[in-house]
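User: Hi! I have a protein structure encoded as tokens and I'd like to know what sequence might fold into it. I'm fairly new to this, so please keep things simple.
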């Protein structure tokens, strides 16, 4: 079983580390470390060297952590593996945040020294027909997810008598059961509750991709429209397929209740699906880029200055603009979308998350 844990580190954490190290290359070319710049400035030699330094520092820090993780995984100590996994995730997240902040403040100083940033007028481009395009998959695709959930629930009820009196809920990295619960309808159907919550979450994500604020490059708005359309469609497909993969994982959990499988098989499947989701997301990030910036990338960058709204981006990553009615906007750091934390409805999001967690825990006990 240590081999499975090692494979998880290799196939999940190495791609994540690579994507974090090269994230400045995946952002829009109108943003450099959370600061708005022209595409021409983004491609300038000083900023190119800055991105190279960021990637080099990241790899120098992350690679020893991964080597230590692989070494500890081969020891076969389950307690050490669990602690290591948590420590690795925490360290990588903290280091990534710290590096982004250091380079963000450095980029802020660089922008202040650019005469073009102060003298040239900024331009904004708007396509009034943008949201009438087919930007995302229809939510009707999630009928497949719901159908799989209903089939799983029906099978669990039909074969309820075959399910053992004690149901395994959690395994360690060696495949040993470390937590179980007495059989009950609530316990048996708990995976279906989780499936419904996952489906609702992914439908919400798909809707947010559609409704997020339009962001076009003023230097070449028509090309930017094509890029942004492809960007949203691809991530909508990712959302649908990833949701189906997660729903399938909980169906597999129920299948294991009815027909108990070897622990190695259970662990393997439990690792393959998250690895698929992570690799899919990273491949999409590198081939598409933020806002479709890596799709049909032009040979030269436009000198047109984008709208300077840096004041609304706290630390280059948190968007807070009371004057913007948009709830979802593109991230400046990372791939995807974030929320306008000044929006009046913002507090409903954490409330909904907390209620979902409480509901899941309550139904699972």
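Assistant: Happy to help. Inverse folding works backwards from shape to sequence: for each of the 365 positions I chose a residue that suits the local structure. Here it is:
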């Amino acid at each position: 079983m240590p081999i499975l844990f090692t494979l998880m580190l290799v196939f999940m954490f190495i791609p994540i580390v690579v994507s974090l190290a090269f994230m400045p290359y995946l952002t829009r070319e109108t943003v450099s470390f959370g600061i708005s710049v022209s595409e021409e400035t983004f491609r300038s030699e000083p900023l190119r060297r800055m991105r190279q330094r960021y990637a080099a520092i990241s790899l120098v820090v992350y690679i020893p952590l991964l080597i230590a993780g692989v070494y500890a995984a081969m020891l076969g100590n389950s307690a050490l593996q669990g602690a290591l996994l948590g420590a690795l995730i925490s360290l990588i997240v903290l280091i990534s945040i710290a590096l982004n902040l250091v380079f963000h403040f450095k980029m802020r100083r660089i922008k202040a020294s650019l005469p073009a940033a102060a003298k040239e007028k900024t331009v904004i481009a708007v396509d009034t027909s943008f949201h009438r395009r087919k930007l995302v998959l229809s939510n009707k695709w999630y009928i497949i997810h719901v159908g799989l959930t209903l089939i799983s629930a029906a099978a669990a009820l039909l074969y309820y008598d075959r399910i053992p009196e004690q149901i395994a809920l959690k395994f360690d990295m060696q495949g040993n059961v470390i937590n179980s619960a007495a059989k009950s309808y609530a316990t048996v159907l708990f995976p279906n509750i989780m499936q419904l919550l996952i489906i609702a979450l992914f439908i919400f994500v798909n809707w947010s991709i559609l409704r997020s604020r339009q962001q076009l490059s003023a230097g070449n708005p028509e090309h930017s429209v094509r890029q942004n359309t492809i960007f949203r469609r691809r991530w909508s497909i990712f959302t649908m397929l990833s949701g189906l993969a997660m729903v399938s994982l909980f169906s597999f959990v129920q299948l294991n209740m009815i027909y108990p499988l070897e622990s190695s098989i259970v662990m393997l499947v439990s690792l393959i699906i998250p690895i698929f989701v992570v690799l899919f997301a990273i491949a999409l990030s590198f081939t598409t880029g933020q806002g479709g910036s890596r799709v049909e990338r032009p040979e030269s960058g436009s000198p047109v200055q984008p709208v300077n709204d840096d004041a609304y981006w706290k630390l280059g990553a948190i968007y807070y603009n009371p004057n913007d009615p948009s709830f979802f906007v593109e991230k400046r750091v990372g791939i995807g979308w974030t929320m306008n934390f000044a929006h009046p409805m913002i507090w409903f999001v954490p409330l909904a998350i907390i209620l979902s967690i409480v509901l899941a825990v309550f139904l699972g006990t």
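A useful reference point when you look it over: The chain has a mean pLDDT of 84. Feel free to ask if any position seems puzzling.
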